[in-house]
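Attaching the record inline, Q. Sequence:
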Amino acid sequence: MTRRWRLRALVAALVLQVLVLLGLLGYARYPVWFGKEVVLRTVPVDPRDLLRGNYARLRYDISEAPMPEVGVPRVGREVYVQLRRKGRVWKAVDTRYSPPPGDFIRGHIRAVRVGSVTVEYGIEAYFAPKDKALELERRLRQGGLARVRIATDGRAALVSVEDTGEGTGEGAGGPP
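Structure, as predicted:
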């Protein structure tokens, strides 16, 4: 092998690694850049974790979704939860195993209950500095709102979390 060939192979390997990293970043940020914004009602579950840092673990109203009408729901199965806007917030109206018409969010079944399934969407943790995480937990004790961007394929990204200013009041906060 010539020295020139080794140099080209090294450069090609480095370029490939950079492209893979950029691709992963683009895949993760796609919902934030191009997704539709929805507002979901949320409450905190756990304020921080010693291993992962300071964060608020969130649970959403849409985490308890209707039971899919066809097929046997099983833990880990991918589902699509159809959303409908009611006032300022969005609610789960149907659960399917394939993308439904209209607005929907993609998740995985975490538990099966009588008449419903618990779905996890990958937007259940909101990381913040320690003081901000503790303050957020305090403010959200009665509930809050999460701004989420959802891509056309149903992938979601958490943008921000805010308290409603009125506990769990339906129309609290700023403009829709």
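Confidence is low (pLDDT under 50) at residues 167-176. The CA atoms of residues 56 and 104 lie 24 Å apart.

More tomorrow.
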